[in-house]
């Protein structure tokens, strides 16, 4: 079995990830810095020195640095990916990682809980919003697009003839224009009638290569929170929660799950949609499969 130092392995691993999106690479680098520090602390010079018990040590190491469970899970995922890379290259004989179960605190469970707006709150927010925030909220609440996708929209992406909105790019929190989240995120959303008039107003004096929204994400977020406070809306929510609100409203009103999932949200399959939004599906059907009563089987 070939031997390689952990530091060299990490550098090689990162090089292979260089084709990924900027934000993803940034997350890898952050996790790998902690992994490298852990290796140094436990004197794991060669990757072959990593043993099953080290996986537990790694979790305790992260907990000691006050990482929450979400962060710990992310760094475990990166460490496992690094070990699989080492396995593929023949630097370790097998992937031996202990099964780690992290119990979320009440605070972490509350953070995971989706906080959506209902239809009355959506109407209230849009009616009281001003300027670009008003336009943004209208498009956001009635497309379900991600924040970066909306801020990356250009006039040329809007097709008023076919009533479609093409998602081709995304603007990151660092104001970097990039591709959408994944392959399924490239999509043509339906332009619902409720936003067509607003889109025409936004596009009226713009060129095809001009962005629909010029307001910065940080300012947009601040104005959104200020609006919620002014309206005495409890549990302040993020810009991204307009997406969750779209999904919850549409599904609860009986709109087709596949349309919500693939066309509007850009999910690769229904499993992703149901994972987050299954509880919003209508549950008021009591008598199912009534058509079977017409069969004569005697």
Helix and strand pattern: HHHHHHHHEEEEEHHHHH
Number of helices: 13
Structural class of the secondary structure composition? mainly alpha
Biggest beta sheet summary: 3 strands, antiparallel
Indicate the low-confidence ranges by residue numbers.
none
> Radius of gyration over alpha carbons?
24 Å
Work out the helicity level: 40-55%
Strand order of the largest sheet: 1-2-5
Q: What portion of residues belong to β-strands?
A: under 5%
Strand element count: 5
What global shape is seen? globular
Mean pLDDT value: 91
First-residue to last-residue Cα separation: 70 Å
Description:
It is a single chain. This protein is mainly alpha-helical. It is 51% helix and 5% strand. The chain is built from 13 helices and 5 strands. Helix 1 (6-16) runs antiparallel to helix 2 (22-41), helix 2 packs across helix 4 and helix 6 (119-128) packs antiparallel against helix 7. The radius of gyration is 24 Å and the shape is globular.
């Amino acid at each position: 079995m070939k031997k390689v130092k952990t530091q060299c392995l990490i550098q090689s691993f990162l090089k292979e990830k260089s084709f990924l999106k900027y934000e993803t690479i940034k997350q890898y680098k952050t996790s790998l810095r902690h992994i490298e520090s852990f290796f140094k602390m436990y004197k794991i010079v060669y990757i072959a020195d990593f043993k099953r018990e080290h996986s537990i040590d790694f979790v305790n190491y992260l907990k000691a640095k006050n990482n929450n469970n979400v962060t710990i899970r992310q760094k475990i995922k990166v460490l496992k990916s690094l070990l699989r890379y080492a396995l593929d290259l023949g630097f370790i004989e097998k992937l031996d990682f202990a099964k780690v179960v992290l119990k979320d605190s009440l605070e972490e469970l509350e953070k995971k809980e989706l906080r959506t707006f209902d239809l009355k709150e959506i109407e209230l927010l849009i009616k009281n919003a001003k300027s670009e925030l008003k336009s943004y909220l209208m498009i956001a609440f009635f497309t379900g697009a991600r924040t970066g996708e909306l801020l990356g929209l250009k006039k040329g992406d809007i097709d008023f003839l076919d009533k479609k909105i093409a998602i081709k790019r995304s603007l990151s929190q660092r104001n970097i224009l990039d591709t959408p989240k994944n392959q399924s995120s490239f999509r043509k959303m339906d332009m619902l009638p409720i936003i067509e008039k607003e889109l025409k107003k936004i596009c009226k004096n713009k060129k095809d290569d001009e962005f629909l929204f010029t307001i910065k994400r940080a300012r947009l977020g601040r104005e959104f929170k200020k609006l919620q406070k002014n309206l005495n809306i409890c549990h302040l929510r993020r810009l991204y929660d307009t997406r969750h609100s779209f999904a919850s409203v549409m599904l609860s009103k009986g709109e087709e799950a596949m349309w919500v999932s693939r066309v509007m949200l850009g999910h690769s399959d229904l499993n992703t949609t149901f994972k987050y939004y299954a509880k919003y599906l209508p549950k008021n059907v009591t008598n199912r499969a009534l058509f079977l009563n017409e069969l004569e089987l005697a």
